Amino acid sequence: MSDTLEKLQEVFRDLFDDDDIELKSDTSARDIAGWDSLKNVKLIVRVEKAFHVRFATGEVVGLKDVGELVTLIEKKIGR
Amino acid sequence: MKADIKRLMKAGRYREAFELILQVKPTDAPDLLEYAAGQIQKLPDDIVSARVGTKKRLAVLGGATTSFLTPLIQLFALRRGLSLDVYESDFGLYEQEIWSTSPALRQFAPDVIHIHVSSRNLTLPAYADDHERHVAEQGQRFVDLYRAAVERFGCTLLVNNFETEVQRPYGALDVAPQTRNGMIRSLNELLARTLPPQVYLNDVEQLSAICGKSRWFDARLWNETKTAVSFECQPYYADRLAATLGALFGRSKKCLVLDLDNTLWGGVIGDDGLRGIHLGMGQPEGEAFQQFQAYVKALKDRGILLAVASKNEPENALSPFREHDDMILRESDISCFVANWEPKDGSLVQIAKRLNIGLDSLVFFDDNPVERELIRGSLPEVTVIDVPEDPSLFVQALDTENLFDTVSVTQEDQTRTAALQQNSAREDLEARAGNYEDFLRELGMRAVAEPISERNLIRVTQLINKTNQFNLTTQRMTEAEVRVVVQNPAFYTSATRLDDKFGSHGLISVVIGRVTADILTVENWLMSCRVLKRGVEIMEMERMLAFCQQQGLRLIVGRYLPTAKNKLVQEHYAELGFREAGGDDSGTTWHFDVDGRVPLPTHHILT
Predict the structure, then answer these.
(1) How many helices, marked H, and strands, marked E, lie in chain A?
(2) A46, B220: Cβ pair inside 8 Å?
(3) Residue from B320, B316, B298, B296 nearest B307 by CA
(4) B160 vs A25, B69, B349, B391, CA distance in Å?
(5) How far apart are CA B91 and CA A39, in angstroms?
(6) Please, what is the average pLDDT of chain A?
(7) Mean of pLDDT values over B104-133
(8) Which residues 58-77 on chain B approach chain A with CB closer than 8 angstroms?
């Protein structure tokens, strides 16, 4: 598991209050209970804080799974 | 704290978890706030209701998305003594809900509607020469809406004024009334002047300035989710709103309990002496303490009771109040002064008892963290302020808690401390008089009893919502509900003022009864504890009886519904000659025949 994915997993576990969440590249909103559009807004704010990045308006709307989010984060932190 | 709450919740130790959740504040980390708010629904009802007794129904109608905001409002309402059921409109439908008299909202039967509007809901141009017309139009739009809401849903309204915005396309000209911000300012002033009755303003313009306008609005959050207040500022919005809701339902605090050494002045009076303590102009620290005293004095002048709980020799403790020229607070400002060497939890219990108020009405302000910890542990109902080390921050620490919020100031509020002092003159008379009956005769009491009307409605509502002890049914009512009763001829109402030779007590007694066929059922009977054992209740009974005789009614029915605080009136109906006619889990029922065969006790009040 990459560092980014591991750190992201911590964010997910805390936000959804569920220590059993195991993130994979193809994990999507369907796989996690309570991951709706409202929670997604909170998630993005948490991710920004955890990785010290900022997403532009609309940038995260089209992402289809965790893998794409990881790619976007890594692009932003220059990895 | 979050880890602690989590651990307790997972272990099913809900009572302890709830105590921690009640301590969460707007300044805490966002993830703690979110987590705490998320736990409320998971707490068992009986644990919440045992600690937070008042349950109310709040409808939030949004001109913006409110989903992120409402859990925070619920969270902070709890620490204001309110447990809220919430109804949320769909995004942006606040006008439709009102104008269509939404059946879902009617069915919800809100106690309060909060209309969450912001400047984004205003149709105002960037600049207009006919700015006055624009302002008048927008003012009309909202005033009409609010009036309709009160009429159609019969409840109180809490609405926002409008925040001026950060961007200034006209630069320095932004101050002119023709600009958008200029029109927003005029509109706010118009609203404050012309709000219909039962509509209260939430001062978002001021709050957004305190929080910082550039932090208040998050353009990305608005564009993506139509949320009008940034995540960073939502907790402050929610807490301020919760405080006003608390005030509407009489849950604001009543008394500020102050320490003395290093709280009202710098230094220790017992060691440093009158000339050694830091207070007043010329010393930076002394000015800070004086500013704090000035703020506290302003609270007192609008009806907040002040008490002192100090570990000191009483003579030492009082000397600055009597002899120090730079003291702003005087002995006469303090309603209850406790100086001794006993643990302070005992002093607080004594203060609550002497002032006839609940421990949950006290706010404790003490620079010593050990004392604060003691009170937190042994008297969790008392609100304890996290007093900062620097006295320059005292005012802010107390003010931002919004604990003494109010939606109106009545004459009684402004004269409360004086009234308590008249009480001590009365106590002297009581000590001199040979027996209690002589004392009552010598008091020269005069009462003015009249039906509830627009003239006394605000004070009556206040009394209904904050009287806990002499209160037979503890039925709280909003101003709107009282007004409905006033306008309904099937109700008997009485609101009584009492004076005696030492001064006026103001409006102190309220009775509301409903007439059905030949029966009068008493729905509310309450009285301020200031006038206990004066015979006011006997006088009220006489009046009610006279009304029943005149109307040809046959029976008066009274109910006693016990609460944690009204044991005082358990025997109220028995003492007036009612006979017990049954009871159940909720309380006891009492009957009184209007035929005049049961004589009433006597009293010494002239009417």
Answers:
(1) 3, 0
(2) no
(3) B296
(4) 45, 14, 39, 33
(5) 17
(6) 90
(7) 96
(8) 67-68
Please, what is the average pLDDT of chain B?
92
Inter-axis angle of helices B2-10 and B30-39, nearest 10: 20
Strands (E) across B318-360 are located at 336-340
State which amino acid sits at residue B185: R
Do residues B326 and B297 make contact, with C-beta atoms less than 8 angstroms apart?
A: no
For chain B, list the domains and their CATH numbers: 1-51 (no CATH), 53-248 (3.40.50.1110), 255-399 (3.40.50.1000), 411-606 (3.40.630.30)
| % of chain B beyond a pLDDT of 70 | 97
Band (pLDDT 50/70/90 cuts) for residue B454 is confident
User: Is residue A70 within 8 Å of A25, Cβ to Cβ?
Assistant: yes
pLDDT, tens only, B319-365: 999 999 999 999 999 999 999 998 999 999 999 988 888 899 999 99
User: Confidence class of residue B595 from pLDDT cuts 50, 70 and 90?
Assistant: confident
**Residue B164 confidence (pLDDT):** 97
Determine the average pLDDT of the residues in B71-84.
95
Is the Cβ of A77 closer than 8 Å to some Cβ of chain B? no
Answer yes or no: are the C-beta atoms of B589 and B559 closer than 8 Å: yes
Contact B116, B62 (CB under 8 A): yes
Instruction: Assess whether pLDDT exceeds 90 at residue B220.
Output: yes
Q: φ and ψ at B325, to 5 degrees?
A: -65, -25
B365-397 pLDDT tens trace: 999 999 999 998 889 889 999 999 999 999 999
Q: Select the residue of A45, A57, A58 nearest B231 (Cβ to Cβ).
A: A45
Using alpha carbons, list the distances in angstroms from residue B351 to B32, B262, B510, B511, B533: 35, 21, 26, 29, 21
* B31 and chain A in contact, CB less than 8 A: yes
Tell me the angle at which helices B131-153 and B180-194 cross, rounded to the nearest 10 degrees.
Answer: 40
Question: Which residue pairs, CB below 8 angstroms and at least 24 apart, start in B265-270?
Answer: B265/B289, B265/B320, B265/B324, B265/B327, B266/B391, B269/B312, B269/B316, B269/B317, B269/B319, B269/B320, B270/B312, B270/B313, B270/B316
The two structure tokens encoding residue B364: 């404790």
Predicted structure pTM score: 0.72
